[in-house]
Amino acid sequence: MRAIRTLLIVAVVLAGLFVAADRAAVWYAEKEAADKIRSSQNMSGTPDVSIKGFPFLTQVAGKKLDEVEVSLGGGVTAGTGENTIRVTDFDATLHGVEIDSSFTSAVAERATGTAHISYADLSRIAGMGITVGYGGKDASGNGRVKVTGSLPLPMGQVTRSVFSSVTLVNGTTVRVHAEKVPDDLPGLEGLIRKKTDFERQITGLPKGVTLAKVNPTQGGIDIELGGTDVRLAG
Helix (H, G, I), strand (E, B), or coil: what is residue 184? Predict the structure, then answer.
């Protein structure tokens, strides 16, 4: 009995040491992964990385992580040049992350997530003199935005507002299109639409991540993310 008791105690101690070593390895890997993602994706801040599943060391031995969560509360800056836009509250869950032995390369089989664009940031890239805000819901219950722009005309500057739908193009571009243009200025629909209709490509997200769905809300544009073969590093 004493021998069995001693064996059980040793087994419990070894199990505890294994768990401690496993958790320490996870902590180190999460820190290293966050730094590599920040540098490889040129993010303005360091993301929070959480590696799921236990034991971690077994996943490392198989060079594949079951699930990794990446979030950046401060958001990422997407786009290039004057069309850069801040995508805030970036959260992504990566499934089936293939890694190499040196942790210099990481590619996820599949990714899902969410992000957010504020109306202030959307207005900034919409164009000179254009503001974008929440426009409530249309007859089908879909969210829409209210776009306001000004036109310089011979009789003076004219300001008009339109309700616009927000859709996606090719999984990379946000399109804002007026449902109807005010008809009190005959023949000027084209000029009004040049002010109120626009498209902006959202680039700079991790390679492989695409925009899956957009939903205008009172607080801004909520975005659902998706993607396959998402490269985080390497």
Answer: coil
